[in-house]
Design goal:
The protein is an alpha+beta fold. The chain has seven helices and seven strands. It has one domain.
Length: 327
């Protein structure tokens, strides 16, 4: 009579180890697939931005999309309160932001925010008028930006302060996950009454010497080496080698849109320092990500003022004009 050999303890341990290893392999591969899928979705959003940028430039004299109101050229607007009390370019663009959010974003009672420069985080809102659509723009939200997705799904709850964490203001839900370099809405030249926007000491914080920045004048044809300059980067999705990584880590990778319309995934470690056309050789700030043009879109060390003299450093004057792109 034959007897079957029962499982011994070593055999059972081997089986447990093999099953555990297989589980680890499947978990890692599943995480990689999810990460790749999320990156693909983000690159798809960026490609929509690229197509719209091409169309916008064809319709508006080769310009990049940006806010267009200035102190001298306001409106038109159906809200008279937004057309009065405008003393500089910052208040003009804050008024345009408010006009868009009232008309397109379902917030008719939103008041104009003083000392608020929306171009840093909200320039994409100008595309709502161009596309003749209401906010929100679905392609402006990264798959990695879970808070912004939830806010868009239930804006009434957002306004009522029912989300945690709550940014404590009405404007943040109209933002985008994709960060735009100031090179594409701020001129790098300086005149007697206007100055370039300079990146400040914190992320998404910028400074200017005057409250009348030159904006909305950058042209697509100005950009040299467009395949090497990033137009937009995904600010909400940073991947490491094995897991999401803090964006300042050199191996942190994020989807980006190049000026030539191509999408790519680039590392923070290969990025240039922050946007500072007034001191392009300075080692700081370094809080800007993704291959931003240091001095200009053309690739020069810096542009020159209209009188032909080099742009002077005005660090002492910058403090008084410090603004934030997020209210």
């Amino acid at each position: 009579m034959r007897h079957r050999r029962a499982f011994a303890l070593p055999d059972l341990l081997i089986v447990v180890v093999v099953v555990a290893l297989l589980g680890c392999v499947l978990a890692v591969s599943g995480g990689k697939r999810r990460g790749l899928g999320s990156q693909s979705e983000s690159l798809g959003n960026l490609k929509q931005f690229a197509a719209i940028t091409t169309s916008y430039a064809a319709d508006y004299q080769d310009r990049f999309w940006a806010f267009s109101w200035t102190r001298q050229n306001l409106g038109p607007s159906q809200y008279p309160d937004l057309l009065s009390g405008i003393t500089d370019g910052v208040s003009a663009q804050s008024a345009q932001f408010t006009d868009l959010v009232r008309r397109r974003g379902g917030q008719p009672s939103l008041a104009r925010i003083p000392n608020f420069y929306p171009a840093v985080r909200y320039s994409h809102l100008a595309l709502a008028d161009y596309l003749n659509t209401n906010l929100f723009l679905p392609f402006a939200v990264s798959p990695g930006d879970q808070n912004l997705r939830r806010w868009h799904e239930n804006p009434a709850a957002y306004v009522a302060g029912q989300f945690s964490p709550s940014p404590g203001n009405t404007t943040a839900m109209f933002g985008t996950s994709y960060e735009l370099s100031p090179a594409f809405f701020s001129d790098a030249r300086v005149t007697a009454t206007t100055g370039a926007i300079v990146q400040g000491a914190g992320h998404s914080v910028y400074a200017m010497a005057w409250m009348d920045p030159i904006t909305g004048v950058r042209r697509v044809s100005e950009v040299l080496y467009p395949a090497s300059k990033v137009h937009l980067n995904d600010n909400a999705q940073n991947q490491g080698n094995r897991a999401p990584a803090y964006w300042m880590f050199p191996d942190s990778r994020a989807p980006v849109l190049m000026v030539d319309g191509s999408g790519a995934v680039r590392t923070t470690g290969s990025a240039n320092p922050g946007w500072n056309p007034e001191a392009p050789t300075s080692p700081s700030p370094r809080l800007s990500i993704m291959h931003r043009p240091r001095g200009s879109l053309r690739g020069e060390r810096f542009l020159r003022a209209g009188c032909g003299a080099p742009i002077a450093s005005r660090a002492a004057a910058l403090g008084a004009g410090t603004l934030t792109g997020r209210k």
